Amino acid sequence: MTSGVYDIFIAGGGINGCGIARDAVGRGFSVFLAEMKDLASGTSSGSTKLIHGGLRYLEHYEFRLVREALMEREVLWGMAPHIIWPLRFVLPLHKAMRPAWLIRLGLFLYDYIGGRKALPATRTLNLETDPAGRPLKLGFRRAFEYSDCWVNDARLVALNARDAADRGAVIKTRTKVVSAHREGGFWSIVTEDVQTGQTETISARLFVNAAGPWVDKLLQNAAGSNASNVRLVQGSHIVVRKKFSDSRAYFFQNNDGRIFFAIPYEEDFTLIGTTDQDYKGDPQDVKITDAEIDYLCAGASEYFAEPVTRADMVWSYSGVRPLYDDGASKAQEATRDYVLKANGAAGEPQLLNVFGGKITTYRRLAESMLEKIEDVLGSRGKPWTSGATLPGGDFDKQGFEGLVAKFRREFPFLSEAHSRRLVRLYGTRAWRIIGSASSFADLGRLFGGDLTEAEVAYLIDQEWALETEDVLWRRTKLGLKLEADGRQALEEFMKGRSGADARLAAQ
């Protein structure tokens, strides 16, 4: 900061806001980020959890987007091998859908336009003999198998925020922008702590609007613009009891031309999604509709020998994608590419807006935003994020199993499943959670499953977790397994540990 003025104020604690904050502070800019709810509480935790090129985007001729996304897969895997890992996808050929030659052509491009190195190439499967055919109806005989990656999306956001804070950024959650205006050559931004009502005025040389579904609303607040730049598209997913034991995921074509996935999820479940439909309400009120549930169940039942029904559901979630409005006639055809636009006359403080984007290209989006920031504020440092690991990711991307084995040797009082879960979520920082404990009892109270007081304390102190939902549905997915009494005990514990002191500790 210079005379109490930050270089950059960022509104939005999703993947784009946190990614920009991390890149900017790493180049030497002073950064203040405000998120009105929890990190990744909107679109960034509502994805299909994939780092992928977007095979279906080839149909819409978005070759630049697909190539950039394909190139990012192995970069991101190397940055965070605890929360990102390769996943093989089985695409059964359906005689009533796209012809096999067209799919094979798309997969050929998929394999060779993105600089694939460690990920295996596409191959053809005989579903009558391959284990991938066992859960499917007998009519499916051939499939293609190709590579993409899985990501724990909400944790990707939290780790970008953690790294940004470790490098000097101020990260404030539950802090909303009340007003913003240009004053004396700077932005004057009033924020409000939504829990205490306390306000604070922040001065910044540049304002980045990464508010996701709220980007147009914030643009209107700060610049008086009534333009509609984003198309809000709802995507919903259902989580059902485990439908197959294979470690591979399925890529299914639906009879309306759309595609959806069935993916192994949290050991005991299957994730099915997504939908695509325009959304007109308040983004914070989004929830799955009966029609979407029926759509996903019917689509999956077209392929699986054992039908998927509402009775199988254990959870659902929905997100609102703020896609750049390119005038596409259908929600599924709207571009997933990002657009960055400046607002402000020459010589006055600039407002830089983020429209659209997808989780796979967040790092490249941040680099593009830094180019625009440096055009205004001057250059401070070179691009650096492609070779820098995220917190906990400082181990070889092929070395996850070895890291789990090392963790188990050092903490033999933990079960195999507990050790694996901790290393999967926290990587090398799992050691910080266990600390000097020499027995399971040293980890404090057990809330249910294997969620301990030590882990929750870490999430409060290091990852801005303030409410039970932050812990159970974003930092972990233990909400799928924790009973009501465990949730109550967790809530009571967090009320005692959360608050101003914990929020300061996380910063």
Structure description:
The protein has 507 residues and is α+β, with helices and mostly antiparallel strands. It has 3 domains: 5-43 and 154-229 and 336-387, FAD/NAD(P)-binding domain (3-Layer(bba) Sandwich), CATH 3.50.50.60; 86-150 and 232-322, D-Amino Acid Oxidase, Chain A, domain 2 (2-Layer Sandwich), CATH 3.30.9.10; 400-506, Alpha-glycerophosphate oxidase, cap domain (Helicase, Ruva Protein, domain 3), CATH 1.10.8. It has 14 helices and 20 strands. It has helices at 15-26, 63-79, 100-112, 153-166, 215-223, 290-301, 362-377, 400-410, 416-426, 430-434, 453-463, 468-475, 484-497, 500-506, and strands at 5-11, 31-34, 50-51, 84-92, 123-126, 142-151, 170-172, 175-183, 186-193, 199-209, 230-241, 249-253, 259-265, 269-273, 277-278, 313-324, 338-343, 350-356, 446-448, 451-452. Strands 3, 4, 5, 6, 11, 12, 13, 14, 15 and 16 form a 10-stranded mixed β-sheet that branches. Strands 1, 2, 7, 8, 9, 10, 17 and 18 form an 8-stranded mixed β-sheet that branches. A two-stranded antiparallel ribbon has the order 19-20. Helix 1 (15-26) links the parallel strand 1 (5-11) and strand 2. Helix 1 (15-26) runs parallel beside helix 4, helix 1 packs across helix 7 and helix 11 (453-463) crosses helix 13. It is globular, with a radius of gyration of 23 Å. 49% of the residues are buried.
